[in-house]
Amino acid sequence: MPRFSIIVPSHGVAGRLSQALDSVLAQSFGDLELIPVCDGPDAPAAAVAAGHAERDSRVAPVHSPPSAGLSGARNAGMRAARGSYLLFLDGDDVLVPGALARLAARLAETGDVDVLYFEHERVPWWEGEPANPAAALLAGAPRGTFAPAEAPALTGVALPAWSAVWRRAFVTDARLKFPAGHFTDVGWSGLAGIAAERLAVLRSVAVRHRLRRQGGRLNLPGAHQHELLDQVELVLTHARAAGLPEDRARPLFGQLFEAVLRTAARPRRLPSGHRAFFRRAGSLYRAHRPAGFRTPGGSLGVQHRLLAAGAYTAFRALRGANRAAGRLPRPRLPLTRLRYALDLRRPLDENLAVFCAYWGRGYTCNPASIHAAARQLAPWLRSVFLVEAGQEHAVPEDVEYAVIGSRRYWQLLARAKYLVNNANFAEGVVKRPGSVHLQTQHGTPLKKMGVDQSTYPVVAARTGSFAKLLGRVDRWDFNLSANRHSTQTWERAFPGSYEALEYGYPRNDVYYAASPHDVVRARRALGVPDGTTAVLYAPTHRDHRTGFEPGLDLEAFCEEAGEDVVVLLRAHYFYDQGVPAGSGRVIDVTAHRSAEDVCLAADALITDYSSIMFDYANLDRPIVVYADDWEVYRETRGVCFDLMAEPPGPVARTPKELARIFREGAHRSPESTRLRAAFRARFCEFDDGLAAERVVRRIFLGQPPESLPPLIPLAKRLPAPAATVFVRS
């Protein structure tokens, strides 16, 4: 029997779950079992938990459906637990180093107590000093083991369930379980505090609670706030039935209603039903107020008295209404600014959708693919693409557009119901109630993104204000993802309250829709000679360099790789000069607007760390990684996973190695095929050719997720064939 059973619910925190599990397995005290609780075998967190279980036999995942909530997940973990003591850890929190050793040592001193409370640290998600709110609560407790009557103020309801360890035999004997509802910690801790007979405290931090940028789920507005009163009534009713002495009932009552009044005094938490909440709270207050309870002083005492009297109007007048100051728009010219502010007062145009890609570079990427699908499936929509001045030619003739910064541009942004972008709209764009912002992203991340860049000085210096970045993230309602790796990375890099749409990237649909004729057309448009092997070379941007450096002598590569090899050079879009160029066997396709056409034309891909590898993998054609500076890139830019451990094909470190791979055909070897298959399974997870249709049906047509086209299994997907398959024949 292990000393500790550590139960870790994981719903909604798959991106951070590894850190929580690693913090447990890295503890110096190893007599434990670790029980991650996942939504199901196919849930995003399940793969993370399974990976840890493969590496460490102490990890034993269990499943609990999302409908069971946090309480159901913890109860499922308890049913599987075998340890002497239970410890609950949220999936985005961590155990501090040495925590279990200190807890085990303290239990050795106290003997088998029912509950051992300990301190925890609340860490701001970005800036600010950590806080230790439990320290003051535990400071007055006796030094050794004590009965609840010796420290009546330590009721437990002011502490989260993960700020204590609980003796499993006590939990079983008392028939304790987490009650359903959002405020399950209040019910659990209150009931356990009433039943416990032997307590102890550890005046040391064991858990580091990492506050979420979007706030804790219990502080968010919604009807779930009424569930707090369910837990309060449950605890108070149980206390009365158990005959809890009044000297213990009084502090329990006071702490419960302190929590109730915090909610009642914050109208944003109760967008509807505030009066009903107040009335029910008042009824509970009057029904359960213990004899001898003295109201506290100051403003809190006034609130107690108004609640007891049922004086809702007076209570509302006392607390006042917190008014949110809206962010002012920032168009440049005063007249445009005034007109934009006036347009924001006009009703939303329910049939207006505005699209933008790469800060206005043209009609491209996911927004263009969604736009095209919307014209087919929702033809009544008026869809407008935004482009920079001078890029009007990059929009098809039959697509309506507006120039960024113009009067019409701001008017459209003020009135549009739908706003779709693969980057971000301007800083001054106001997110209107009722509008829908869809962030499509523009690639699967290998490099660090968003706030994850903050620890890389070279990148952070160029990123600008992370606070402003996250202000833009707050406008997102939906965020598109092509695989679970991306979903989890975005969760960490762009913390927000948006919904992740795991539908695939619409720009990749073409790889399953294109015909052999489309491949030939793409090759001839780029000037690829018939009968040649076209190798796409697509290096990524280097933050530690000031300009584009190809990193490879492409003419020399062609000479060494084979007489039929030509190279399509596509530099990062930062270096797009707008004019395609060719030189011998090297064709510069950087300025070509369609990356998808370039990929269709290529028989193989060479890249270093560009996200194009994830898109190209959909074609199931050879990919070779040229990693001549992997260590430097990893240290200066930061990466989300080890590409050298999971490459999509052969890895070359020098130009000679790279040429030899092609000359000897290693890029088409069985080992290359095996690597590519594993890579596709992980990173082409949701790309099946139907992504744009899913997005349009969900966002513009309002169809429920269950009615969308089901995912086509990877083995049944048929990508467009490479030119070498049919041209030579």
Give descriptors for this structure.
729 residues, alpha/beta, eight-stranded mixed beta sheet, seven-stranded parallel beta sheet, 28 helices, 22 strands, 38% helix, 15% strand, globular
SSE blueprint and pairings:
Layout: E1 4-9, H1 14-25, E2 32-38, H2 44-55, E3 62-63, H3 69-80, E4 85-88, E5 94-95, H4 99-110, E6 115-123, H5 134-139, E7 164-167, H6 168-173, H7 184-195, E8 199-210, H8 227-241, H9 246-264, H10 274-288, H11 298-309, H12 312-319, H13 334-343, E9 349-356, H14 365-377, E10 382-387, E11 400-403, H15 407-415, E12 416-421, E13 436-439, H16 457-463, H17 466-473, E14 478-481, H18 484-493, E15 499-502, H19 510-513, H20 516-526, E16 533-538, H21 554-561, E17 565-569, E18 581-583, E19 586-588, H22 595-601, E20 604-607, H23 612-616, E21 623-626, H24 630-637, E22 651-652, H25 655-663, H26 670-683, H27 691-700, H28 723-726
Parallel strand pairs: 1-2, 1-4, 2-3, 6-8, 9-10, 9-12, 10-11, 12-13, 13-14, 14-15, 16-17, 16-20, 17-19, 20-21, 21-22
Antiparallel strand pairs: 4-7, 5-8, 6-7, 18-19
Helix pairs in contact: 1-2, 7-8, 8-9, 8-10, 9-10, 13-15, 14-27, 20-22, 21-25
